[in-house]
Amino acid sequence: MVLYARQDLLTRDSLELPDTWEELLALATRYNGTDLNNDTQPDFGICWPADEFNLAKLAMAIHASIMQSTGVAQGLFFNLRTGEPLLEQQGAAHSFALLEQLLALSPFAAYGPNHAAFDGHALDFKQGRCAFLAGTQ
């Protein structure tokens, strides 16, 4: 996953780049609904492509980083020793809650999952409509 940030906003507000999902959520929440590009329209805390393909990749990035915080031996969907599902674990619930909260701060909430795919979100970011842009390679 790649995260782009409006450094001009962070510098103006004496803020640092986020190091965690929770920090990204806090910053995206701070900027969401404010006019970031001086066009008198409310803008978005974060933009990211949320079509079927890209949403799955972004969800995996969040989920894996939380579920496997100390390495892949922790398993992702199943306990590697017992085969027991891990989706009922607190980490899984936390990762999906973060995804839901971040999506609510993006054009996905207003326009749905196929809002111009990645190119549209990149254009939104370039036009100053998003404080952050997340994508995958």
TrEMBL record:
InterPro entries: Bact_solute-bd_prot1. This is Uncharacterized protein. The lineage of its organism: Eukaryota, Haptista, Haptophyta, Prymnesiophyceae, Coccolithales. Gene3D superfamilies: Periplasmic binding protein-like II. SUPFAM superfamilies: Periplasmic binding protein-like II (SSF53850).
